Known about the structure:
The protein is built from five helices and six strands. By secondary structure, the chain is of the alpha/beta class.
Amino acid sequence: MHRWVTCESTTFESMVNPLAGACSEGFVPDEYIILSNEAIRDNVERATALAERIVAEYDESLETTVESLDDERDLEAIVSFFKDNLDAPPSGETAVDVTPGRKFMSAIAFQAGMQYGADHVYYLFLDSADYYGHIYDDIPDPAVDLIDFTAVMP
C-alpha cells in the first residue's frame, strides 16, 4: 500500500503533476489524502478525479480522502493532519507532496515528512513559469524535475 499525503491549492495542476511524476518514477499510490478548505473545494474535486485517472493508467485504483479545514490558517490542525497521516503509515511507503498549498502549509508538510519518517518528500520543480497551468505530460522532460528531499537530505 502506498499513501500520498498533500494539501490543497488554487491550481489543480500543482496537486496532480507531482503525483504524475512520482507514478512515472515508480511510486504509484493507492491512497490519496488531501487537506482542503471550502473556498477551493471545486479545485480539489477536479484534482482528485484527475489523480484517480492518472493512477488508473498504471492499472491501479486510488482511494481518495479529503479532510477539510475550518480555517486555512489553523496551523495546529495542519500539523495534526500531517502527523496523523504519517505517524501510523500503512505497510508500504508514504509520500508527502510539498508542491501545492500556501508556503506555510508546504513548510509544515516538509517538516512533518522529514520528522515523522515519510519515505518520500516530493517537490515538483518547473524551470519556467511558461509551464504553469500545464499538465505533467505536456511539459518537456528537461523543464520538470521531481525532487525527493529524502534523497537530498537523508
